[in-house]
Amino acid sequence: MKKMYLALLIYITLCGFSFAQDTDDIVNWNDVNFILPVIQETKNGKKIDRLTLTFSGVLRIGRNLKRPIDERVGIGFSYHLSRNFSVGSSYLYRRSRLTEAPRQFEHRLNFFLTAEKKMKYLTIKNRFMTMYQIRHARQDTVAQRNRLQLLFPIRKNDKEIFSPFVTDEIYYDFKTRKLYRNDLFIGIAKQLTPKFGADLFFIKQDISMGPIKDTKGLGITLRYKLK
């Protein structure tokens, strides 16, 4: 299992650098999420987080890995309606400078519905998110995001070791009435301890609006449960 884990990490790394020569920008994504259970329930001897708060921080390095291009902080909540469905909302403050153009600032209000189906060797997640962007020096806009994720748990003695995953997220702008962005992720999710988990991934972005049309790189997401 350790050899398989290492092989997948090497594969993701090679994917990232193999596309570097024909991309508009090479990036590194770093996300941290602190998850605070607010309401917990116990069903069939298993503890369930019914309502959670998430505090998030984001740092993205771009310009071919030369400088920070995107910093974000946010807070959000998620409420599990049932085993398969959850709803939530979040606020995010973003400061970005993707090119030499002046720095941009915005507030984001997000509202989402997530559907999830877990099976022994496959988990399917789909998140529908409405994103309202309040932007400084630019016109506000509303977008719809749909994020589909497939996870493939690798198990040993009926215990999950890690989960390779593929995620695709599309963006639709209500103002222009067009699809304007697609994000593809290929990576590995690993729960390192009962409270701490991490995702390592390769990211490829195709964007039709703005100066940057094609982005590729590597990223990591860290998750820590506060209690």
Low-confidence stretches: none
Helix-strand sequence: HEEEEEEEEEEEE
Share in β-strands: over 45%
Distance, first to last CA: 29 Å
Specify the helix fraction band: under 10%
Tell me what the structure shows.
There is one protein chain. With 227 residues, this protein is mainly β. It is 7% helix and 69% strand. The chain is built from 1 helix and 12 strands. The chain has one helix spanning 2-18; strands spanning 25-43, 46-62, 67-80, 85-96, 104-118, 123-135, 141-151, 154-156, 159-173, 178-191, 196-207, 214-225. Strands 1-2-3-4-5-6-7-9-10-11-12 form an 11-stranded mixed beta barrel. Strand 6 (123-135) and strand 7 (141-151) form a beta hairpin. The mean pLDDT is 89.
Any descriptors?
227 residues; mainly beta; 11-stranded mixed beta barrel; 7% helix; globular
Blueprint (SSEs and pairs):
Layout: H1 2-18, E1 25-43, E2 46-62, E3 67-80, E4 85-96, E5 104-118, E6 123-135, E7 141-151, E8 154-156, E9 159-173, E10 178-191, E11 196-207, E12 214-225
Summarize the structure.
This protein is mainly beta and 227 residues long. It has one helix spanning 2-18, and strands spanning 25-43, 46-62, 67-80, 85-96, 104-118, 123-135, 141-151, 154-156, 159-173, 178-191, 196-207, 214-225. 7% of the residues lie in helices and 69% in strands.
